[in-house]
Amino acid sequence: RTYMALRNARTGDDPHAVLAAAEQGEDHAKSEYEHALDDELPSSVRSVVQRQYGEIQTAHDRVRELRDATE
Fold it and tell me: How far apart are alpha carbons 15 and 40 in whole angstroms?
């Protein structure tokens, strides 16, 4: 779904649309990690998922900043 949105946005040569589509993908990833963290996970797995979730949040925020800069 995200790939199709990015592809469609890219064909319009609109940086804002591309970044908005990328942010939607980041939103989805954040949601999936939040669901995973709601589950019972072994501590070793939980620490990896928490670290990755933090990295996803950082990437999401950066994509949002870039998107907002193109408005």
Answer: 40
Separation CA 9–CA 42 (nearest Å) = 40
Each residue of 28-46: pLDDT tens digit? 999 999 999 999 999 999 9
**Structural tokens at position 24:** 């939607």
Question: Are the C-beta atoms of 66 and 18 separated by less than 8 Å?
Answer: no
Task: Provide the whole-model pTM.
Answer: 0.75
C-alpha dihedral (46, 51, 56, 58), degrees to nearest 10: 150
Please answer whether residues 19 and 61 qualify as being in contact, where contact means their C-beta atoms are separated by less than 8 angstroms: no
